[in-house]
Amino acid sequence: RNRNGHAGPCLQDPSRPGTCTVHRSEFWSSYRLNITEVNPLGSSFRLLDITMQAIIKPDPPEGLVVEPIPLAPRRLHVSWKYPSSWPKEPHFQLRFRLQYRPVIHRSWSVVETVNLSEVITDAFTGLEHVVQVSAKDFLDAGNWSEWSAEARATPVRGACSRVPRVPGAVASLSCDSLSVPDRSEPLEKMAVLVSLGIFAFFVLAAVLVVTILIWLRVRKHGKDKTKPHSFLVAATHLKALPSESGC
Asked: Which PROSITE patterns does its entry note (predicted)?
């Protein structure tokens, strides 16, 4: 029964014991379920209050595809589709989480996105990776879906031609025998060297400026000390002149 007092059956599926389905349920609605258990010794019931948005759980995303990216030995492109059971309406959006790992490793890396594709940027070159995706209501209502079926791919080097995609299958590329060198690492090294050079230049410039200022200060201080001595010598000389003329 919903909050408006309308009562209806919760239909049971013989193939799924212990479950029932409320058809035409409304998302932002509350329901009270009367669950009755009957056996030869008698019966018992339980009233259960349910808010739809608190228990919603999408089906797993479909059509998961993982592909290597040519000339990007540490990247994999992942794409998927909304579950076919999810309402295709603008105000019923989903967000997704992606988990991936090399097949030989046991720990997962997880990223979240609202898009239907993602680029993995920290894959291991030459190692096969396993990828799964799950979904949840965009407004964080309810629970995450179960993980989708696995899809696998291996990031590679070289210029490659794309093989037709099969959802859920292992993606592969047909690569030339001559591997094209990866230019991303030399560029990163060059950027680091340039940054270090600029930093060293500013440090040397600062040291030079401080050295010049100290030298000017010491020089000025030395001149100030010599001025009184010269003045006393001149005064003594002038004072001695009259006595010489008197003689």
From this structure: FN3, HEMATOPO_REC_L_F3
